[in-house]
Specification:
Blueprint: H1 2-26, H2 36-68, H3 77-82, H4 84-107, H5 114-128, H6 159-169, H7 173-191, H8 196-201, H9 206-215, H10 222-228, H11 244-249, H12 270-274, H13 276-281
Protein name: Sterol desaturase
Keywords: Membrane, Transmembrane, Transmembrane helix
Transmembrane segments: 6-25, 46-69, 162-182
């Protein structure tokens, strides 16, 4: 299974590399839009995820599944063969729901329950790294390289990743592979420096603009996710990587904007500004 996961990682990095080249050709990495520390964070995140966190996740998840339900290995392979399309749709719906719940939890107010508060603190500080891009000059913009930049432990504790490996253990190989590829490509493209959706939202033909506005209630487009990475009230909105339907109907945090964010990235403290290692590894789990 590690070979499968490594192949998926290589494929995802290939798509990210394509968009990095696109952004470079477009000029979206110049004039302070991308800093040297942004590239350093990408290198740290890719290295840690590929050599430490993902292998540990595979080992832990499959070890746990084998221990708890050894007789269930591969039992759903028949569904993978007979109902592939339905399986992929179901996988994406569940995966996005789990990811959206954790993401919403990470941006929500602190729960009164002390156990939930501690759990949320872990997700908050681990996810914070994903929003620390750009420099102190406020010229930084969101780019595709930020897709994979999260603090250590985020991927390991995401319930949708555990769900994905459970699907693999149960024999849903093609369901997992296709569903994960679709979600990855869509999530990568929402982080990329693209604005085609803005052009359609602001199109002078009302049929085009209204159709795009309706689609923004179903799928997450780049500008929606870019506003999630902005320094504004909409930073707590548009939590889904792919299915804006959940933002709209479940979390009530859908924000459809008609212009790009004015300022990207959260404010950094002095240590976060100066040290990428501090930014990636430090875990202040007590509430400040």
């Amino acid at each position: 299974m590690e070979n499968v996961s490594n192949g998926y990682t290589t494929y995802s990095l290939g798509v990210i590399a394509f968009f990095i080249l696109y952004e470079w050709a477009k000029g979206a990495t110049k004039a302070g839009k991308k800093t040297g520390k942004d590239w350093q964070m990408l290198g740290i995140a890719v290295t840690w995820l590929h050599f430490v966190e993902r292998p540990l996740l595979i080992l832990s998840s499959f070890g746990l599944f084998t221990l708890l339900m050894p007789e269930h290995a591969g039992v759903l392979a028949w569904l993978d063969d007979r109902y592939l399309i339905a399986g992929v749709i179901g996988f994406i719906l569940i995966d996005e729901l789990l990811h959206g719940w954790v993401h919403n939890f990470s941006h929500a107010r602190t729960p009164n329950n002390p156990i939930l508060a501690k759990l949320q603190r872990w997700y908050k500080v681990t996810h914070r790294t994903h929003h620390l891009h750009g420099g102190a000059d406020n010229r930084g913009e969101l780019g595709v390289s930020q897709t994979i930049v999260v603090g250590w432990g985020w991927a390991f504790t995401l319930p949708n990743y555990w769900f994905g490996y459970l699907c693999l253990y149960l024999g849903l190989f093609h369901v997992w592979a296709i569903g994960t590829a679709i979600k990855s490509i869509w999530g990568i493209h929402t982080h990329a420096n693209l604005d085609y959706d803005l052009k359609l939202l602001n199109h002078r033909n009302p049929v085009v603009s209204k159709t795009m506005y309706a689609l923004c209630h179903i799928l997450t487009f780049p500008t929606q996710h870019h506003h999630h990475h902005s320094r504004s009230p909409t930073s707590a909105c548009n939590l889904q990587n792919m299915l804006a339907l959940y933002d709209w109907l479940l979390w009530k945090k859908l924000a459809i904007e008609f212009e790009r964010p004015k300022i990207y990235g959260w404010r950094k403290n002095e240590k976060e500004e100066n040290s990428v290692l501090y930014r990636y590894f430090y875990r202040p789990l007590r509430k400040s």
